[in-house]
Amino acid sequence: MSKIAVFPGSFDPITIGHVDVVQRALPLFDKIVVAVGVNSQKQSLFSLEQRIEWLQSVFATEPRIEVGFFHHLTAHYCQAIGAHYLLRGLRNASDFDYEKTISQLNHIVGGGLETLFFISQPGYSHISSTIVREIIKGGGDASPFLPAQIQISRLPE
Ligand code: ADP
Predict the structure, then answer these.
(1) Read out DSSP for 75-111?
(2) Which residue CA neighbors atom 18 of ligand 1 most closely?
(3) Catalytic site residue from 24, 31, 84, 91
(4) Whole-number Å distance between alpha carbons of 142 and 134
(5) 28-56: b or e for each residue (b if 16 or more CB lie within 10 Å)?
(6) What is the whole-number distance in angstroms between the Cα of residue 63 and the centre of ligand 1?
(7) Which residues line ligand 1 (CB under 6 A)?
(8) What sign does the dihedral 106-33-51-72 (CA atoms) show?
(9) Of the residues 1, 7, 45, 71, which has the fewest C-beta atoms closer than 10 A?
(10) 67-120, pLDDT tens digit by residue?
(11) What is the dihedral sign for C-alpha 14, 117, 21, 4?
């Protein structure tokens, strides 16, 4: 049975902090599915298609990383694709407080689904998609926080 993990997120857009989590988790699994959770309550800056395209280009050279998306519950998506593990990153105490509850719920709803947490590297703990979006909205250069495959020079239409 292959060991599959899902790294769920909004990835609006993907940052080098996200990439670091995936790279560090890869030796532990046969396959990682980086999956965009589509949340109807949460307005994204970039379209689902754009976010998926960026993820595919960032992970194009690693055959053990797949890109997907899902509506509704993360735990049900994991069950549907045979994943028994979730990956999440922790940057600070507020990430921890939020993630702790979600992981406990996912363990119940997902029938034993385990969440693995990766503490962000010191050089990445200030990086978030929110900050990247603010820089882009303000007309600044977000490239220090983005994987090399992604160039965002202006806001989407
Ligand atoms: P969500 O909307 O589900 O929080 P994000 O795309 O913002 O999705 O983040 C996905 C995951 O990546 C979360 O677990 C988040 O804590 C983690 N993450 C985001 N930025 C970093 C970073 N710089 N270092 C480590 N983990 C991070």
Answers:
(1) HHHHHHHT--EEEEEE-SHHHHHHHHHHHHHHHHHTT
(2) 89
(3) 91
(4) 9
(5) ebebbbbbbbeeeeeebbbeeebbbebbe
(6) 22
(7) 9-11, 15, 17-18, 21, 88-89, 91, 95, 120, 124, 127-129
(8) negative
(9) 1
(10) 999 999 999 999 999 999 999 999 999 999 999 999 999 999 999 999 999 999
(11) negative
Ligand 1 centroid from CA 24, angstroms: 14
Which of left, alpha, beta for 72 (phi over 0: left; psi -120 to 50: alpha)?
A: left
With H, G, I as helix, E, B as strand and everything else as coil, classify residue 35.
Answer: strand
Question: How far is residue 67's CA from residue 22's CA, in Å, rounded to a whole number?
Answer: 12
Q: Count helices and strands (H / E) in the chain.
A: 5, 5
Structure token pair of residue 74: 């993360």
**Whether residue 129 lies in the annotated active site:** yes
* CA–CA gap between residue 23 and residue 76 (Å, rounded): 25
Read off the pLDDT of residues 29-53 as tens digits, 9 standing for 90 and up: 999 999 999 987 889 999 999 999 9
Local structure of 41: helix, strand or coil: coil
Distance CA 94, CA 74 (A): 21
